[in-house]
Amino acid sequence: MFEGIKQRLGIGQTLVQPETIDDRIIGYNDIKIFLGQLEASKKMLNVLFNGPPATAKSLFLDELERRYPNPIRYDFGISTGKGVINSLVEFKQEFQERKGLRGKSFEDVPITLLIDEVDAIKPKTDLKMLHNLLEGKRVTYTKFRFRVDLRIPNLRVFATTNYADKLPEPFLSRFFRFDLREYTLEEFIQIAKGIAPKHLNPLRENIDELAEQFAVELYPRDKNVRQLRDMMIAYEVFEGQKTVAEILGFKLKYTQVRDEEQREQRTRTRPESKRKQKKNGIGGAPF
């Protein structure tokens, strides 16, 4: 039904060719193949990317948002389950009004729901709503006189989490799950050499050696490819007049200030603790 639209948007293309993928996603070729085949198959499957920061989870969502049909992106770090419902309702209304698509059944529409930080979901009602959406492809919500009852059989949900163990097992069982691990030093060096020609002057004779230095210097502190890229850009800002170690030192000078402030804030006594101390007769005035 939507083949013409999909062709114009580049949807359904296999995600395996490295030259067609954003160079921020390094490795995981088998996952890229799987995601390409999943779209081509039209099978409905929910996928969860779990792992520590800097393992390309959000980057996968970026790629899926660009390639999959009718994407709706959400971040539970700053959003709620009701917001997801509202987004789905708004999409249905826009779809029904879209020129050339009137008369089509909404249940035939493929929708891609992309959720960042699903482990940050807080209210139990939000978790239950999303659980029902994953299992039955249906969302219902009633508040005062406002009622929503949507059936979305052609819905795929892709989500990321840093801590899957924070979520209940019945909820996790609704996903096909990928546990992504941190890059090894050897992989990080390979990544550095791969992105170096884009972010360093490609005319430098020692570009591979420089790339390895960046990876080796940064790896013990941060395995984030974004930080690796930014250090290379900073190196070129200084036109190669500073060493790799000096660039890292320049970066860490103010990073350490931030980390020290965060540690100090965590060690401060919380208001709740003070109230407990007063209640127990510890500290404060005796009345």
Key phrases:
11 helices; 7 strands; 287 residues; 5-stranded parallel β-sheet; alpha/beta; Rossmann fold; 48% helix; 2 domains
Short description:
With 287 residues, the chain is of the alpha/beta class. It has helices spanning 3-9, 29-41, 57-67, 81-97, 124-136, 169-172, 185-199, 207-218, 225-237, 244-267, 271-279; strands spanning 47-50, 71-75, 111-116, 138-143, 146-151, 155-161, 176-179.
Description:
It is elongated and about 65 Å long. It contains eleven helices and seven strands. Helix 8 (207-218) crosses helix 9. Mean pLDDT is 77; it is low at 1-22 and 269-287. With 287 residues, the chain is α/β, with parallel strands linked by helices. It has two domains: 3-179, Rossmann fold, CATH 3.40.50.300; 185-259. The protein has helices at 3-9, 29-41, 57-67, 81-97, 124-136, 169-172, 185-199, 207-218, 225-237, 244-267, 271-279, and strands at 47-50, 71-75, 111-116, 138-143, 146-151, 155-161, 176-179. The strands form two sheets. It has a five-stranded parallel beta sheet, with helices on both faces. 48% of the residues lie in helices and 13% in strands.
The average pLDDT score comes to 77
How far do the termini sit from each other?
75 Å
Number of strands: 7
Strand content: 5-15%
- According to CATH, the fold-level topology of the largest domain is Rossmann fold
Order of helices and strands: HHEHEHEHEEEHEHHHHH
Number of helices: 11
By CATH, the superfamily of the largest domain comes out as P-loop containing nucleotide triphosphate hydrolases
Shape: elongated
- Please give the share of residues in helix: 40-55%
Largest sheet: 5 strands, parallel
**CATH architectural category of the largest domain:** 3-Layer(aba) Sandwich
CATH classification, class level of the largest domain: Alpha Beta
Structural class: alpha/beta
Radius of gyration: 24 Å
Compute the number of structural domains.
2
Which residues form runs of ≥5 with pLDDT under 50?
A: 1-22, 269-287
Q: What is the strand arrangement across the widest sheet?
A: 2-3-6-1-7
